[in-house]
Design goal:
The chain contains 18 helices and no strands. It is an all-alpha fold.
Length: about 475
C-alpha cells in the first residue's frame, strides 16, 4: 500500500475518532442539560421517540449503504449507476419503513406527544436515508475527513441551538424539529460536496440490476439486525430472569465496553473502501489486513489490560461505591475487547471481499450460542454469568473468523501477533501491581509506557514503525 495512501487514511481515522468522541460528549451535555431544565418526564418523551425511531434505521437503508461503498471503491466509474439504483430502491424502502414505524407506534399505543415526535423524527430519517447515499460515495472515495468535519461542526451548532431553544422556553417538539433540520443540512452538504467534486458524473438506473443489488445488500441488513440483537440480548435476558439491580450492574460495564469499541468500528469504516478497492489483488489485501490486525491487537490489548488493572479505581471515579461489587463484571467484559476488536476487523474483510453472507452466518452462530448459554448461566450467576457468556461467545466467534478467513489471515501470524501484546500486557500488570501507585492518572500513564516498552522488546514495534509514525507526524493536515 502506497505510503501517501496510508497517511491519508490515518488522517481519516483520527478525524473520525475525534469527531465521534467530540460529538458524543456534546450530545451527552445536551442530554444532561435537557433533563435538568425540562425534567425527566418531558425529556423522556424526546428520548423515547428517538430510541423508537432509531430502531428502524436498518429498514430504510436495506444494507445498500455498505454495498455502495464497496462497489464504488472497486470501480469509481460505477458511482452513478449504484447511486441511482440505490436512490430508486430507497424510495420503496422509505415508504415501507414509514408505514411500519407508524403502525408499530399505533400498536404500542404511544401517547399523543410521543407519537407527534415520532412523526417528526421519521420525516427526518426519510430525508437522511436519501442523503446518506451520497455520504457513502464520499466514503468510497476515502474522503471521510470531510464527513468528520461537517459532522462535528454540525453537532456543535445543533447542540448550541438546542440548548438555546430550551433556555428561551421552547419544548421537546421544537427540539425534534431542530434535530431534523440539522440532519437535513448536513445531508445536503454531502450532496453538494459530491457534485462539486465530480464524484458522480450522472445518475443512472438499470432495472435489470436492481434484483442482484438487493440480493447482495440483504446479508448486510440481516447481519446488522442480528448484531443489534446480540449486543442487547444479555441486558434483556437479565431483566427478564434477574432483578433490575443486576441489569444496572451489567449495563454500566457494557456501555463502557461499547464506548471502547468505537476505535475498531471507526477503523473498519475508514479501511472498508481501501480493502474493497484491492478486491482483485489478494497479495495486497493480505498485506493490508496484517497491518490492520497488528494495530487492532496492539491498541485493544493496551486498552484492555490498563483498564483491567485500574478497574476498581475507574469504577469508584464513575459510580462512587454504588457499583463496587460490579468490578469483576467490568474486568471480564474488558478481557473480551481484543477478541471483539479482531472480529470487527475480520468482519470488515468479509464484507470488502464480497463474503458478507459468511459474516451473517457467524453472527447468527454467535447470537444463538450467547442466547443458549445465557439461558443456562444467568439464572444462577446473574450479571457475572452474562459477562462470562459474552467472552465465551466472542471466543467461539473468533474461531469461525479464523477458519473462514484463513486465506487472508495466517494462523501463525495471528498467534505471533497476539502473543506479543499479551506478553506486554502481562509485564505491565505485574509491574503496576508492584508499583501500586495511588494516582489513577499516574497508573494509566506508567501502564501505557511499560506496555509499549514491553511490546518493543517482544518485537511488536519495529524500526519501520517509528519511521512511518514520524512521516505521519510530518504530514500537513
Amino acid at each position: 500500500m502506497h505510503r501517501e495512501r496510508i497517511k491519508k487514511n490515518v488522517k481519516n481515522f483520527f478525524f473520525l475518532l475525534i469527531s465521534n468522541i467530540g460529538g458524543k460528549l456534546l450530545y451527552f451535555y445536551f442530554v444532561t442539560y435537557i433533563v435538568k431544565e425540562l425534567g425527566p418526564t418531558e425529556s423522556g418523551v424526546l428520548f423515547t421517540a428517538q430510541t423508537f425511531t432509531s430502531m428502524f434505521t436498518f429498514l430504510f437503508s436495506l444494507g445498500l449503504d455498505m454495498l455502495i461503498i464497496r462497489e464504488i471503491a472497486k470501480d469509481k466509474s460505477k458511482a452513478g449507476l449504484y447511486t441511482g439504483n440505490a436512490l430508486l430502491l430507497k424510495i420503496f424502502s422509505s415508504i415501507f419503513s414509514i408505514l411500519f414505524i407508524l403502525i408499530s407506534a399505533s400498536v404500542l399505543s404511544y401517547q399523543k406527544d410521543i407519537f407527534q415526535l415520532i412523526l417528526i423524527l421519521t420525516f427526518g430519517m426519510t430525508i437522511i436515508n436519501f442523503t446518506s447515499t451520497f455520504e457513502q460515495v464520499i466514503r468510497a472515495y476515502e474522503k471521510t475527513d470531510y464527513l468528520a468535519v461537517i459532522s462535528f461542526f454540525g453537532m456543535v451548532f445543533r447542540v448550541t441551538t438546542l440548548v438555546t431553544a430550551i433556555h428561551v422556553g421552547l419544548g421537546v417538539v421544537h427540539c425534534a424539529i431542530i434535530i431534523v433540520i440539522y440532519d437535513i443540512i448536513i445531508g445536503l452538504a454531502s450532496v453538494v460536496y459530491t457534485y462539486r467534486n465530480n464524484l458522480i458524473n450522472s445518475l443512472q438506473i438499470r432495472k435489470n440490476e436492481l434484483t442482484p443489488i438487493i440480493q447482495q445488500a440483504l446479508p448486510f441488513t440481516l447481519a446488522t439486525i442480528f448484531a443489534t440483537v446480540y449486543y442487547r440480548i444479555d441486558t434483556v435476558m437479565i431483566s427478564l430472569i434477574q432483578s433490575t439491580d443486576e441489569v444496572t450492574r451489567y449495563h454500566a460495564s457494557y456501555r463502557i465496553l461499547e464506548g471502547l469499541l468505537i476505535i475498531p468500528n471507526i477503523l473498519g469504516s475508514v479501511l472498508f473502501p481501501v480493502l474493497s478497492s484491492f478486491y482483485y489483488n489478494k497479495k495486497i489485501l493480505i498485506d493490508i489486513n496484517q497491518n490492520i490486525l497488528k494495530f487492532v491487537f496492539t491498541v485493544s490489548f493496551l486498552l484492555s489490560s490498563v483498564l483491567i488493572v485500574n478497574a476498581n479505581s475507574i469504577y469508584i471515579l464513575l459510580f462512587s461505591n454504588r457499583l463496587s461489587d460490579s468490578v469483576l463484571i467490568f474486568q471480564i467484559l474488558l478481557s473480551s475487547l481484543p477478541v471483539t476488536a479482531f472480529c470487527c476487523a475480520s468482519a470488515t474483510l468479509f464484507s470488502a471481499t464480497g463474503r458478507q453472507h459468511i459474516n451473517l452466518i457467524i453472527t447468527i452462530v454467535v447470537l444463538v450460542t450467547n442466547f443458549l448459554l445465557n439461558l443456562i448461566i444467568i439464572p444462577r450467576y446473574g450479571a457475572l454469568g452474562a459477562a462470562a457468556t459474552t467472552l465465551t461467545s466472542e471466543l467461539i466467534g473468533i474461531v469461525f473468523h479464523l477458519i473462514f478467513n484463513r486465506d487472508y489471515i495466517n494462523l501463525i501470524f495471528f498467534i505471533k501477533e497476539s502473543l506479543r501484546p499479551i506478553a506486554a500486557s502481562a509485564i505491565m500488570v505485574i509491574s503496576l501491581n508492584w508499583i501500586n501507585a495511588s494516582s489513577l492518572l499516574l497508573n494509566i500513564f506508567v501502564g501505557v509506557l511499560i506496555f509499549l516498552i514491553g511490546l518493543f522488546f517482544a518485537g511488536g514495534i519495529k524500526r519501520s514503525d517509528f519511521i512511518l509514525v514520524r512521516s505521519l507526524m510530518d504530514q500537513k493536515i
